[in-house]
Fold this sequence. Notes:
Shape: globular
Amino acid sequence: MKEFLRTTRRVFLSGASLGLGSVALSQLLPQQASSLTNPQFSPRAKRVIYLFQSGGPSQLDLFDYKPILNKRNGEELPDSIRRGQRLTSMSAHQASLPLAGSAFQFKQEGQSGNWVSQLLPHTASIVDDLCFIKSMYTEAINHDPAITFFQTGSQIAGRPSLGAWLSYGLGSLNADLPTFCVLVSKDKGGQPLYSRLWGSGFLPSRHQGIQFRSGKNPVLYLTNPDGISQECRRIMLDRLQELHQLEFDRESDPEIQTRIAQYEMAYRMQTSVPEVTSIEDEPDHVFDMYGPDSRNFGSFASNCLLARRLAERDVRFIQLYHQGWDQHGNLPGSISRQCKETDQPAAALVQDLKQRGMLDDTLVIWGGEFGRTNYCQGKLTKTNYGRDHHPRCFTVWMAGAGIKPGYCHGKTDDFGYNIAEDPVHVHDLNATLLHLLGIDHERLTFKYQGRHFRLTDVHGRLIKPILS
């Protein structure tokens, strides 16, 4: 009798705990599902394509025209401009900080009259579709924390990435492809990129980004091993799901359900990924639009074309990374090569989306983690110079859904060193991005270790003047 009571008590307590866990889970999941699938107000954008230029492009050689730097080329950076602000260890001990004018010509382009460097003729052709923010700033002065800050809202690694937050907050528009896809230009040196930049942090792992690579297997571990048929794989997944379900019934761990969902997504991707990555099916005039590199799978041009194909299939967030913008020395030659690789395909992407009627609900963003200094790092010569990291002010551009075209927001001082009007913080940019997708950035939160976290941390405001 005593053994019976012990057994009964054990069964009761076990069942009760599972029941309470199930009730708690059932209360949690519908709330998450509601936020996952329903924007908090009417969105302007359905999807985002983020063209991240890793390394810190020089705004002074691309968009922020400062003729005084050419006029006073070689003169010392005035103390009244620097104001004692910190420098990196790479130039802090230079005996001199000589101003460096740009080696490139600028022109006012389009009806908007925005200044664009000769390095970007294709970008110049779409300037009236773009909104420039010339007053971006960040606290981070080195690459890894700066990139991490843009992608996760924190300089410290471990937080969920922007795409993961969108996956968690809005869910998927396509059941056969990941909500968050990542494309990294192949064969590029420069600052390293880590998978945590597209990780899910403390969010459920199903929200992490999936990297597409060059080569015959764009997504790792997707193809069946030799000797395993599709029917065999289906049977294996069915049995595996049964085992996972038994484990979930015992443990009530939502990550077990995530594993089930990921296995099923991988199964569907065996068909959807080959179809979406078959860019050779595109007509010749499309390849001509994106440039000669567009047939080279894994290049930035090819990735821009693939991004459009993913957007057509309603992938929610598409992140492109292009390395090589860290030009501490030999800037004129290096930045020319970077622009040759990126100018035409980035402009083509905007044009392509526009002619297909997709720019109205697709947000395109171009920018890096910080800008470059107005003074030369290292030796300044008549034909060569370099620029150090500069977090105080830099330029990004946006186009598409809900963004005011042909508009320039913010202004830097005559020396391009400090912000003169309308500063825009990293959190402000991310808050505005979320707003365009129908999300109040203060309400998209996740409780972790006793605290409610969000992408914009504890501040961030809408950049209302750039909204159309």
